[in-house]
Amino acid sequence: MRNLVIGAVLVGLIVLAALISFLWTPFDPTQVDAALRLQGPSGAHWLGTDRFGRDLVSQLMVGARTTLYVGIVAVGVAALVGTPLGVFAAAGPRWLGEIVLRANDLVLAFPALLLAIMFGAAFGASTLTAMIAIGVATVPSFARLARASALQVLSTEYVLAARSAGRTGPAISVRHVLPNIAGLIIVQCSVSFGIAVLAEAALSYLGLGTQPPTPSWGRMLQESQELLAVQPRLLIVPGVAIALAVLGFTLLGDGLRDRFDPRLEGARAQG
Amino acid sequence: MIKLESVSRVYRRSRTSAFGPRAEVHALRDVSFEIEQGRRFGIVGESGSGKSTLVRLIAGLDQPTAGTVTFDGQRVNGRSERQLSFLRRDLQVVFQDPMGSLDPRMRVRDIIAEPLVAQRIPGQEGRVAELLEAVGLTADAGRRFPHQFSGGQRQRISLARALAPKPRVLVADEPVSALDVSVRAQILNLLADLVDQFALTLVFVSHDLSVVRHVCDTVAVLRAGELVEIGDVERVYRSPEHPYTRQLVQAIPTLRGALSGVTAEDLIRP
Amino acid sequence: MLKVDGLNIAAGELPLVSDVSFTVAGGERVGLIGESGSGKSLTASAVFGLLSDDVSAAGSVRLEGVDENLVGASENLLSSLRGSRLAMVFQEPMTALNPSMRIVDQVAEARLIHRTVGDRAAAHRDALRLLEQVRLRDVAELGRAYPHQLSGGQRQRVLLAIALANDPDVLICDEPTTALDVTVQAQLLDLIVKGAKERTAALLFITHDLAVVATVCERVLVMYGGRIVESGPVAEVLTAPEHRYTKGLLDASDLETVDEGGRLHAIAGAVPAAGKFPSGCVFRNRCPRADEQCEVSPPWFGEPAHGHACWHPVGGDA
Fold first, then answer.
1. pTM for the structure as a whole
2. Average pLDDT of the residues in C246-267
3. Looking at the partner chain, which of B81, B96, B104 has a beta carbon nearest the beta carbon of A262?
């Protein structure tokens, strides 16, 4: 319960910051002003400015959009492709399952970074190509998890009971398998969300992700790396934002899993 | 009603080495018998006897490697799920594990209605209420989840689900072996009542010959996939013909026997 | 040999075992009967000093020749007793054996841990002899196997061999045959009785099966709702029960006697979840004879070793 609340608050803050940034930011996050370079926190610039004189708070707020956008698209691609694939590999004919597994291994063996570079080369480096690359690279982890947990559900007596009740394969997958693996998938989503946020930061840092001047937490890190010794604030601010985002999504996932499990209902009432 | 002719089922173990043949497990070997309508037919066997495989074959949930299974003159094996609708309506199964056989994420009313939904039988709501009453559960039980019930109540839910499509045959696979002794008698009584009330043919699978003796009129004894003895349950219990059945009957500890001086050693004395 | 007095076990505020007292003499075989939630396994764990950290125990468990109370004793003392003077056979043999260690080594280790023998070779010889004693065949070959390569019955025999390795004074068996087939169960029961007899060990045999208790034991303790509700010699308790629960249990497990309607004598309701038993007499919410008097906890009637806790006993009902 506490996980859920803390996670929801952290994620809620990010969402709020992103939403507000559409209407208002303290400054234009892309506005360069040499006179305001590397200023410390002040009444006007709450977290100071970077080496181009841009306001950090404004950049964080707009960067939150990028973060959410990346997370939602990357995790969406991974979950929406990976989960049905995994369930299909478990419930479908054996040979099809084998093919899915092998394809999975292939993607898994392929370095995600290389994939992102290839996507970047083919479609041009942008936030969208970065997150699709991250999503594609994350598909196997969903497919594997979905297949393993679906196999477990398929071996239960309630699935046997459903078959003898007259349910056919697709109905069993939808009515019994999906609801029973949903909890695990949700947790996987939140973990992957964290990883996607990190990966976007890493790709942007390498110049393969979000392109200037669009603010992104990863790019904030990249642009300030030489200043680590003199102005650590410039790295700490986006670093802490990324860490809190990852933490928030992980806690939210844990909390949601517990919330959605009817078996824990009694325990919750007691505890 | 249900007829098995020379049924065998071989499972192939997954490969343990890259070379050499896959290990084969003969779950059933050349089993033939017939269950007549209206019978209370018991199937007794220890672990590895093939009794669970037999249940799956009869219920059309698994395919025999050889032989045929027929229900009411219609072949069960080798048919697609679509072609088995006659079986799904007329034959229902109650499984052993009262927790594992109920989907933890479904409400009881949805669990009981599942055969009706799957077979597109109308009038679900009324039927669920009727069934809850028939198995001795209150109407509000429908809104709850399986984990909120005791083992005996869950087995009542399983029974209600099995009876939903008004089957003619009920297959019960070890329905009381996971229950407390003080609850077992209730469920056995309920089962007997339902079999009477709905004129069901009962196939009752158990490792416990004394339970089968109470419930059934006919018994088939399985050992390591083979049918070793079949006949009237009292006859088999009192004067078993096959040495294995004798051993089985002798090994059952009974209160009466123990109180009249039967020791553990007597249970295994050749 | 073993004396349990006023044993109470609770999980926080939730009482799980209340005021359990009994003794088992050397060479005596005592059955502890109960359904799920009766507290019988917890009682066994308390005697064996294996209670988990989330429950607390009070009262006393005393072993002859040991001055200290085993409840609350140091882990050092307990581990020196476990496997030497106290031994236990569990219900699930797979989890009680080390999956990555050969059978014979596990039995030999039982001899080595308590320094019963000096060297490995002697321990190994003893292990083979013990495996033979539990009538396993081809022990030289079987000893080299790993637990997963054995059948359930074989594994349970190995556990018994380990339990008997150091000639314990107290042997506790917690549902040792529940997971086994009847023919295998019969063999194991015979081995347990013989193993205990040969060592004149005190046997505490825990089960839910009345017929098994009657076959194995001389005395029986009936537990329900964390309390001992009746105790006495098997021949008396199981033929002329006093407590209404014992009577109900006997009737419910008797599959040969039915009423006029051909129905078994069932006990109403279900066994409550742990901690959900009623106040007063723990059986009163399912008892056909319960009245206002039963809202008060019944005292113990009769001898400590032969009596019951029922306001309206079967024999003495007006």
1. 0.84
2. 89
3. B104
In a domain, C231, yes or no: yes
Which residues, listed in sequence order, are joined to residue B8 by a DSSP beta bridge? B66
Domain termination residue (choose one: C165, C193, C218)? C165
Q: What are the chain C neighbours of B262 within 8 Å (beta carbons)? A: 215
Cβ proximity of C34 and C222 under 8 Å: yes
C269: closest chain B residue by CA: B183
SS3 category, A134:
helix
Indicate the number of domains in chain C. Answer: 2
Give the range of the structural domain holding residue B155, as residue numbers without chain letter.
2-239
Which of A171, A4, A182, A79 has its CA nearest to residue B104?
A: A182
Residue type, A156: T
Answer yes or no: do C156 and C220 share one domain.
no
Identify the domain containing residue C237 by its residue range: 1-85+168-318
Fold type of domain A2-19+61-263: MetI-like fold (1.10.3720)
Residue B148 falls within a domain, yes or no? yes
Token look-up 């056995």 returns B188
CATH number, residue B214: 3.40.50.300
Is the model's pLDDT at A193 over the cut of 90?
Answer: no
The mean pLDDT value for A161-189 works out to: 89
**Mean confidence (pLDDT) of chain C:** 91
- The reply to whether B89 falls in a domain is yes
**What's the rounded mean pLDDT across residues A58-81?**
88
Residue A268 has pLDDT above 50, yes or no: no
At residue C119, the 3 state secondary structure works out as: coil
| Residue A124 burial (C-beta neighbours within 10 Å; 0-12, 13-18, 19+) | exposed
Question: pLDDT tens digits for C215-254?
Answer: 999 999 999 999 999 999 999 999 999 999 999 999 998 8
Q: Which member of B183, B247, B257 has the closest CB to residue C271?
A: B183
Q: What is the CATH number of the domain that holds C214?
A: 3.40.50.300
pLDDT at B239 over 90: yes
Looking at the complex, does the CB of residue B245 fall below 8 Å from at least one CB of chain C? no
3-class secondary-structure state, position B239: coil
Determine what percent of chain C is predicted with pLDDT higher than 70: 99
The answer to whether the CB atoms of C215 and B153 lie below 8 A apart is no
Condensed to tens digits (0 to 9), the pLDDT of residues B93-133 reads 999 887 889 999 999 999 999 999 999 999 898 999 999 99
Which of C108, C130, C165 terminates a domain? The answer is C165
The per-residue pLDDT for A266 is 43
Q: Is the pLDDT of residue A93 over 90?
A: no
Sheet of strand B91-94, all strands in order from the earlier edge strand to the far edge: B91-94, B169-173, B201-206, B40-45, B218-223, B226-232
B263 lies in a domain?
Answer: no
In-domain check, residue B223: yes
Structural tokens at position C84: 């030497």
User: What is the interface pTM, i.e. ipTM, of the complex?
Assistant: 0.85
Residues C151 and C109 in one domain: yes
List, in sequence order, every residue forming a beta bridge with B94; answer none if it has no partner.
Answer: B172
CB pairs under 8 A between B and C: 126
- Cα of B83 to nearest chain C Cα, Å: 38
